[in-house]
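for the recovery benchmark. tokens below, seq after
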């Protein structure tokens, strides 16, 4: 009997992505799954019910019988899922005690994909990277729209227009995409990150590495926490540099923690009127002290934007990437029409919540 897989329609406000596309539905069916898609699940991302049906899925809103449930964000009604079902998505159980309790009460095998180890083998499943790329792209376009100036240098009959000076704070996937996009728009771009190893990546995209003399190189490619002295030195030098910047795009994040506060209120006050700050980190509190998540405000002549759901703004391509990530992850345990988990596989053992000890394979579901 084929595994019953359900693709949920997202219910979170502003969420337009979907966890499977007609392309990935075909591949799930080839792996032995019977795929059902809730009506309208992909409509906001440009994937019609007819396209899913043509790919071999059934359009069906029933939730309770699914053995494997795919989502982008955690379902609003976890209690409606079949006890013992497998749930795959960006679930963030540790961020919501009620959600964590609901997952445990239903005895779900939950795979919060944000917990996936960021190893070479896991790159094709890395939802954080794929979605951050879209977020960095959209944040840059928002910055260009809000800025009261051109990004590129222009030579006109009225004289030469100098290019905008753009500083991207944070050189993870989102930051690097922001640097690349701002460069394509013709801006003069700098990238700042406390990890010195990002210099080569920033420069490879045509940006200039902003060296403030403070290094926070840590383990696993993530930054370590700065000491109070290091932070004070960084802030002093950054504040001085921001006085000549036209646009700041903030992208710095530490997994599982609130976004680090890098741009202080005093720094914002020191920026020239007409400057723009777009804080991609608004969803986890923001890198800028003046950021109000979901709002665009004026602070002493400086525009500060804290956009939310940036990846959803590019729902078509964001969904295509996310769905492929999900498919590649599910392929670890969906084989020949059955679910079987090898808990000795670190990608499964370290992603499942709560984490389980390595005990070998369990019988197929």
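predicted aa per position
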């Amino acid at each position: 009997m084929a595994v019953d897989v359900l693709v949920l329609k997202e219910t979170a406000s502003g969420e337009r992505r979907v966890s499977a596309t007609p392309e990935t539905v075909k591949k799930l069916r080839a792996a032995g799954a019977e795929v059902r898609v809730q009506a309208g699940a992909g409509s906001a991302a440009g994937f019609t019910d007819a396209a899913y049906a043509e790919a071999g899925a059934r359009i069906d809103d029933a939730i309770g019988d699914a053995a494997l449930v795919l989502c982008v964000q955690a379902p609003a009604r976890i209690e409606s899922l079949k006890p013992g079902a497998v749930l795959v998505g960006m679930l963030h159980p540790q961020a919501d005690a009620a959600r964590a309790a609901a997952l445990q009460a239903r005895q779900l095998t939950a795979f919060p994909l944000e917990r996936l180890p960021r190893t070479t083998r896991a790159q094709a499943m890395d939802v954080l990277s794929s979605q951050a790329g879209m977020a960095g792209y959209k944040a840059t376009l928002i910055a260009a729209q809000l800025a009261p100036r051109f990004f590129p240098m222009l030579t006109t009959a009225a004289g030469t227009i100098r290019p905008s000076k753009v500083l991207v704070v944070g050189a993870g996937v989102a930051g690097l995409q922001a640097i690349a996009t701002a460069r394509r728009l013709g801006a003069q771009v700098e990238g700042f990150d406390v990890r010195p190893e990002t210099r080569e990546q920033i420069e490879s995209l045509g940006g200039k590495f902003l060296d403030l003399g403070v290094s926070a190189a840590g383990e696993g490619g993530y930054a370590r926490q700065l000491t109070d002295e290091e932070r004070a030195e960084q802030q002093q030098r950054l504040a001085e540099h921001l006085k000549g910047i036209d646009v700041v795009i903030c992208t710095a994040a530490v997994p599982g923690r609130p976004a680090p506060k890098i741009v202080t209120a005093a720094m914002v006050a020191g920026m020239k009127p007409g400057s723009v700050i777009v804080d991609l980190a608004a969803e986890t509190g923001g890198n800028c002290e003046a950021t109000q998540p979901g709002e665009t405000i004026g602070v002493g002549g400086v525009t500060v934007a804290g956009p939310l759901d940036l990846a959803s703004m590019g729902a078509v391509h964001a969904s295509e990437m996310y769905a492929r990530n999900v498919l590649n992850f599910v392929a670890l345990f969906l084989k020949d029409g059955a679910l079987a988990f090898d808990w000795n596989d670190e990608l499964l053992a370290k992603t499942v919540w709560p984490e389980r000890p390595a005990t070998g394979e369990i019988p197929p579901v």
